[in-house]
C-alpha cells in the first residue's frame, strides 16, 4: 500500500514527508522533484515569503544512485525563513514571550476552531501547521509519484482555468498546448487576454487589502481502463480524488468531467457513447472526465478544483480576541493576494499520488519491472477482450 505523511510547521526548521510502499527500481532525481517545487513557488500574487524560500529536496532514505530502493523514502525541505523565526518558533519553554502571542483569529482560517479543539491560547500553535506551506511536501510526494507514473506512460498536468471570476478560454486547444502556454504564464493560464485581466485584478485586490480564489484544472493522460473500483466504495477513484483534493487548504469544490453541469442536462446529453476502433473500445466524448463507475475509462482524466480566496486579509474582517473576548479584527500576517497558480501545481501532485496508488493496487509488485510485467499482461488481456 502506497501512503505518506507529512510533518513540519510553516516557520519551523524543515518540512518532512515519509512515503511508504514506493516500489524499487524507479528512476528518481532531486532535479525532477526540485523542478516541481520551483513550479509551486511561482505565480503572480504571492507575498514576500516566496522571495526568501528556494525549496530544494533532500533524500534522507530510500533513494540510492538515482533509483528507489523499495524502502520508505524520506523527503526533507528546509525552511530558509526559519533563521528569522528561531525565537518565535523555539521548542524551549524558557523562550516563550507573551508579546509574540497571536490572539486575533482570522475569519475563514483554521485559527479559531483549531485553538478551541486543541486547547491552545496562542493561535500561532494552529496557524503554523494549517499554513499552505505544508503543500510543499504534497508537491514533493506527488513529484515522486509522477516518477513512477512516467514509467507507466501516464502524464499528469495542471493549469489555472479561472481566477476571481475571470475565465481562461482554452477551447480548441489540446492538453499539450494548454500546458505549454500555461507553464510560461505568470498566472499559469494559456490565454493571454485572461492573463492580463487576472494580473490587473490581483493588483486591484492588493491595493484594497483583499484576496482572490480560483479554479484549477488537472488532466491525466495515458491511463489504462480499470484503475480504481466499481466494487468497493472506498476504492472508487472519483471519491478518492475528491477526498484528497478537498484536503488541500482553501479547497471548496471538486468537479470531474463536466461535473455540476451534468446535473442540468438530460441523460442523452451527458453519457459518452461507446465506439470501437483499431481493436480498442473508446468514447466519442469525455463528459465523464475519464471515470466511469469509480474506475478510469481509459480516456483523459479531467478534474477541476475550486479554491476560496486566502483568509488572511490586509484589511481584516471582524473577529473576537481569543483571550479578552473583545471585539477586534483578524490578525494581519504576511501573506499572498492569491496562490492559484501554485494551487494548480499542488492539485496536479495530489492527483498524481492518487493515480500512483490505484496503479499500484492494480498492478502490484515490489519492483518497477514486476509492475510493468503485470501491467503488460493486463493490457494484453484487455486488448483480447
Ligand atoms: C501562508 C502564508 C505565507 C505564504 C505561505 C502560506 O507565508 P508567510 O506567513 O511566511 O508569509 O507565503 O506559503 C508558503 C510559505 C509556501 O511555501 O507556499 C499561509 O498562511 O498559509
Overview of this structure, please?
With 385 residues, the protein is of the alpha+beta class. It has helices spanning 30-41, 49-52, 111-118, 124-130, 135-151, 175-183, 192-208, 237-246, 340-363, 368-383; strands spanning 3-7, 14-20, 24-27, 57-61, 63-64, 67-69, 73-78, 155-163, 166-167, 214-221, 251-256, 274-277, 280-283, 291-292, 295-296, 301-307, 318-320, 327-329. Helices cover 32% and strands 21% of the residues. It has a five-stranded antiparallel sheet. It has a four-stranded antiparallel sheet with strand order 1-2-7-4. A three-stranded antiparallel sheet has the order 3-6-5. Helix 1 packs across helix 5, helix 3 packs across helix 4 (124-130) and helix 8 packs antiparallel against helix 9. The mean pLDDT is 97. Bound molecules: ligand EPS.
Q: Identify the CATH architecture.
A: 4-Layer Sandwich
CATH topology: Chorismate synthase, AroC fold
* Order of SSEs: EEEHHEEEEHHHEEHHEHEEEEEEEEHH
Low-confidence stretches: none
Number of helices: 10
Considering DSSP H and I runs of 4 or more, what fraction of the residues is helical? 25-40%
Report the principal-axis shape.
globular
Amino acid at each position: 500500500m502506497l501512503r505518506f505523511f507529512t510533518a513540519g510547521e510553516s516557520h519551523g526548521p524543515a518540512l518532512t514527508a515519509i512515503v511508504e510502499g514506493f516500489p524499487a527500481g524507479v528512476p528518481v532525481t532531486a532535479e525532477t522533484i526540485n523542478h516541481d517545487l520551483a513550479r509551486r513557488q511561482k505565480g503572480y500574487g504571492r507575498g514576500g515569503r516566496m522571495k526568501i524560500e528556494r525549496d530544494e529536496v533532500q533524500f534522507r532514505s530510500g533513494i540510492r544512485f538515482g533509483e528507489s530502493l523499495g524502502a520508505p523514502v524520506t523527503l526533507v525541505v528546509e525552511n530558509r525563513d526559519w533563521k528569522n523565526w528561531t525565537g518565535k518558533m523555539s521548542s524551549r519553554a524558557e523562550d516563550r514571550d507573551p508579546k509574540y502571542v497571536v490572539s486575533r483569529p482570522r475569519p475563514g482560517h483554521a485559527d479559531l476552531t483549531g485553538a478551541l479543539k486543541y486547547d491552545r491560547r496562542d493561535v500561532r500553535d494552529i496557524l503554523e501547521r494549517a499554513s499552505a506551506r505544508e503543500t510543499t511536501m504534497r508537491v514533493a510526494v506527488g513529484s515522486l509519484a509522477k516518477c513512477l507514473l512516467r514509467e507507466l506512460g501516464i502524464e499528469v498536468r495542471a493549469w489555472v482555468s479561472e481566477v476571481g471570476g475571470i475565465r481562461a478560454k482554452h477551447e480548441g486547444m489540446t492538453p499539450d498546448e494548454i500546458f505549454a502556454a500555461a507553464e510560461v504564464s505568470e498566472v499559469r493560464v494559456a490565454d493571454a487576454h485572461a492573463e492580463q485581466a487576472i494580473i490587473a485584478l490581483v493588483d486591484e485586490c492588493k491595493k484594497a487589502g483583499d484576496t482572490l480564489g480560483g479554479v484549477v484544472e488537472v488532466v491525466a493522460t495515458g491511463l489504462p481502463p480499470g484503475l480504481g473500483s466499481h466494487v468497493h466504495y472506498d476504492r472508487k477513484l472519483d471519491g478518492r480524488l475528491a477526498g484528497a483534493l478537498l484536503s488541500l487548504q482553501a479547497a471548496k469544490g471538486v468537479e470531474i468531467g463536466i461535473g455540476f453541469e451534468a446535473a442540468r442536462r438530460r441523460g442523452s446529453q451527458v453519457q459518452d457513447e461507446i465506439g470501437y476502433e483499431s481493436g480498442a473500445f473508446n468514447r466519442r466524448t469525455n463528459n465523464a472526465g475519464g471515470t466511469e463507475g469509480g474506475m478510469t475509462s481509459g480516456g483523459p482524466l479531467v478534474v477541476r478544483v475550486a479554491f476560496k480566496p486566502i483568509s488572511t486579509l490586509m484589511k481584516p474582517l471582524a473577529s473576537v480576541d481569543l483571550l479578552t473576548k473583545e471585539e477586534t479584527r483578524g490578525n494581519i500576517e504576511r501573506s499572498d493576494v492569491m496562490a492559484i497558480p501554485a494551487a494548480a501545481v499542488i492539485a496536479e501532485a495530489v492527483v498524481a499520488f492518487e493515480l500512483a496508488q490505484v496503479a499500484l493496487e492494480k498492478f502490484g509488485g515490489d519492483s518497477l519491472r514486476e509492475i510493468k510485467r503485470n501491467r503488460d499482461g493486463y493490457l494484453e488481456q484487455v486488448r483480447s477482450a
